[in-house]
Design a protein that fits this description.
Layout lengths: L14 H24 L8 H21 L1 H6 L1 H17 L12 H23 L1 H6 L9 H40 L9 H27 L6
Helix pairs in contact: 1-2, 1-4, 2-8, 4-8, 5-7, 5-8, 7-8
Length: 225
């Protein structure tokens, strides 16, 4: 099976070049949408502003179920930006001639590290170093020695979970689409496009939800945790 055809690949087949060009394309689309939505704000939103407000409202409602509306609103810029970035990055890969940046482990691993570092930073900043790491030990004092390393491994494994889940699903979708294009380049690929689009948005939703869950678990520490 050959390489997936991309328009940028006509310039260079270098892995880093393909990845960076598609990542910058994704970032450009995100910035364009943000600019279009805020260019002429209206009390009764229309067009791009209406779509973006609906999106932000949905993300806020999702976060409110996890950590309460006040905290969800606080972290809305981060989570909504990640969701928009990941969603567009996934959808780009469905368009023939482009490859999803999220099909590169470089992309997903970088996002996972950003989430990992940020939620731990917020947990320490909100609760203090001692209180934050103390909750890693669990409620039973004589199991501290066992629970602490297990919690550390569990948190580190979130990097692998976040990055490889997104990478594996998007890469699999790319391979599926490439097989369809090889077998029937014109008619057949139109059938699964709706499913691939749904999966692209679903992966963005899962990444946002997990980000909210990790943030909520870091800043809301209870004695019986």
């Amino acid at each position: 099976m050959g390489e997936l055809f991309t328009f940028f690949g006509l310039i260079s087949h270098d892995h880093a070049f393909i990845f960076l060009t598609h990542m910058f394309l994704t970032a450009g689309i995100v910035l364009f949408l943000a600019k279009a939505a805020t260019k002429s704000l209206r009390i009764v939103p229309t067009g791009t502003q209406n779509v973006m407000e609906a999106y932000l409202g949905g993300v806020l409602a999702m976060g409110a179920d996890v950590m309460g509306k006040e905290n969800a609103r606080k972290y809305l810029p981060l989570v909504a930006t990640i969701g928009l970035f990941v969603g567009i990055a996934n959808i780009i890969g469905i368009i023939p001639g482009f490859e999803a940046p999220s099909a590169f482990l470089d992309f997903t691993l970088a996002l996972a590290l950003v989430v990992f570092v940020y939620y731990n930073f917020e947990g320490i900043r909100t609760n203090g170093v001692i209180a934050y790491f103390k909750h890693f030990m669990g409620p039973v004092w004589w199991l501290y020695w066992l629970m602490f390393p297990i919690e550390i491994v569990s948190h580190i494994s979130r990097i692998v979970s976040l990055s490889f889940r997104l990478f594996g699903n998007v890469k699999g979708d790319d391979m599926f689409l490439m097989v369809l294009l090889m077998l029937a380049p014109w008619l057949l690929p139109m059938i699964p496009f709706a499913l691939l689009s749904f999966m692209a948005l679903l992966q963005a939703f899962i990444f946002m939800m997990l980000t909210y869950v990790y943030l909520g678990g870091a800043i809301q520490i209870y004695d019986d945790h």
